[in-house]
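Teaching assistant here, posting this on the class forum so everyone can see the example we discussed in section. The complex has two components, and the goal was to see what a joint structure prediction looks like when all of them are supplied at once.
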Amino acid sequence: MDKKYVSIFLIIAFMIFPLCVSAAKGVPKQDEVQLCLMCHQDTGLTKKLENKERLSLYIDGNQFMASVHRKVKCTGCHNDISMDAHPRVKTINSKREYSAQMYRKCRICHTDQQLSKNPLHSQLMARASCAECHGSHYVKGVKADKVAVQENIYCISCHRNQLVLTMKNGESLSLYIDQSMVGNSVHGKLKCTECHTGFSKTVHPVKSFNSKRDYSILTADACRKCHAEASKQFENSVHLSLLKTGNLKAPTCTDCHGAHSVASAKKDKTIGVTSCNKCHAEMKPSYEMSVHGKAFLKGKAEAPSCSSCHNAHNIESTTLTTKIKDGCLKCHKDAAKAHNKWLKNPPIALPTFAKAHFDVVSCAACHSPDAQRRIYLTLYNQKTKKPLPEEELAELLTTEPGKLKEGFDPNKDGKVDGQDLLKVFAGLFKKGVSTTFMGTMDVSNSVESHMIAPKAEAVKNCDNCHIPGTEFYNNVFVAVKKSDGKPTLIPAEKDTVRSVFSIVPVRKFYAIGGSSIELWDILFIIALVGGIAVPIGHISLRIIFSPIRSLRRMGKGGKK
Amino acid sequence: MKRIFLHPLPIRIWHWVNLAAFIILILTGAQIKMGDRLHLFSFETAVDLHSWLGFILIANYFIWLVYYLVTGNIKIYIPPLHKPIEFAKKALNQAKFYGFGIMVGDENPHHSTFENKFNPMQQVSYLAIMVLLIPLQLITGLLLWDPHLFSPVVNLIGGIQIADLIHILLWIFFSAFMIVHFYLATLGHTPMAHIIAMFKGYEELHEEHGHGEEHADSGEHGHGH
């Protein structure tokens, strides 16, 4: 039934339309709009383009009448539409092509000179059609827009287009903003200019940057305004140290958090893994295989991501610090108690006893059972209680950064051993720098440090650390921190920590039994032999002298 | 047979506990330190024994200290520093006796009494051992027992390796000392005389000795000085 009415309506409409158009030939302009709207106010009116796109031909009459172009009327722009022939079949290939065609129509009234007055505008004109920013039928006028439109909408009116900023090095930065992406981000309620300072509805300077990287480093300042604490933490991170040394791969805020699609790191824990994996992909398999990674992938709420242990912002190089342990202890709060169940220290193992182990041994050294194990000796400045950076150390050792092995081998025998450590210590002491080599027992690389196994598989054996000659003592390295936070590792001779020369320079590193000084074993044996030699010698002399004793007794008239 | 009272009961207990603890501590210490060469005990057993006996030794030290401080008898350890020349002469005589006199049958220049138990050489060495070396061994042992707990002290002396250095050198000294000490203990008028005295408290006097009779067999409280 309904279809019947629609058919009848269409037949009547087609019959009436030519009459209307012919009547319009002499229609005064003010009525022209009404005439066009007779058909174009139909929301369903569309045109199928050659590329199968559908172009809506609907016009909201009220909005059009409120636009600045209401006086221009329809044919002011659509001047190719002839009342005689409309609706003639006009071939339009695509929406894009059509909007480019219509762009020329703007030039009828808006001269090049006027449009190029603002240099930014002239740049934009090369990239986007007029309608992409200003709209087509409901153009409000820029002055009106600036007042009436909400700032974000004003910005997006241009930036919803595929705008591109060309950097000095030729790179292209897309200035396109996905409005829904910003809206859904944690910054959805912020104004654009809260981050993009220096811009407003009335001010839009033309800026130029050396490279995309330069741009993202500079824009990190915007984050600092609100995220002061995180920014402060970032200042102490290995990432910022890397940036400062000119490493352009080092991340800044947006590399992890994204620019406009910033997710809440509190709600979205995956950011603590996915953003890290962008650069640290080599850690991914070992983490995912670990007891932590498996729990994380299962979606367990308490499972740690990278940032749970390494911190999100104040990330440090972990080779030279036991600070990473704080990351472990954040969750494993009763670690000391748990370890004291098997770490024996009669008559009572206090929590401090477990901590004495934690001070020196990394968690991974036992909890990553398949890892290779090493001792790292790091030269600390006693005053600052911080590791001496490579650059400073190279200067003190009168060598160059990168040639530190020579600096740590003052006796030039091609090996770094206890004697060398003592000479380095003495040399620095003479220069007024009091140092100490702090030792840590750790795994051989960062991949291994992530292979944390379930508790039952952890190494629970005192002998690994407390018997001389085990893996740890055969793999000793001097570790020096570069200013970018990464360590330089200099292999030292095995048992370097067991040398009598190491006692003073390595006076704060000690694993009972394991690091025992070899020379004292020899001295102990000499003392025993000497101790036994005294009675043997004395008895021998007494035996030799026994005739004299007998004679003297006889002389005294002894009893026998 | 004359007897002289030398060693009161607390000191006898202290001495023999000390002996047992020292022997086990020296052996377990060797095991802990030389785990790659020595296989008397496992590392864990060695640490267990060493720690228990370390604390027993600390307690035992206080038996000695309290006894001698309370009775005031600590003075037997103090060399007569107001008569240094006389003391030095006596010490030299004693050294001469052990180095030569004993070979040719000289009489021991020192005659032990309850109130003058030690010859000058013993007096100096025991004073050093009891007042300096054993406390140092006990303290450094405590530092090594829980370095984190005692970290302020550990840092004060420079580092845990310094505590270990002192502990190990004293371990070496005590090991040699014990052997010599045992040998010297056999140099009484009979090889077992001093040793038996350390069990019984009384030392039986050689009949040739006229000396010491006045103190003889007068019981713990009965001696005349």
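For the discussion questions: The beta strands of chain A are 46-48, 54-56, 164-166, 172-174, 373-381, 386-387, 435-443, 476-481, 487-492. The first helix of chain A runs from residue 2 to 24. Think about how each of these relates to the inputs above.
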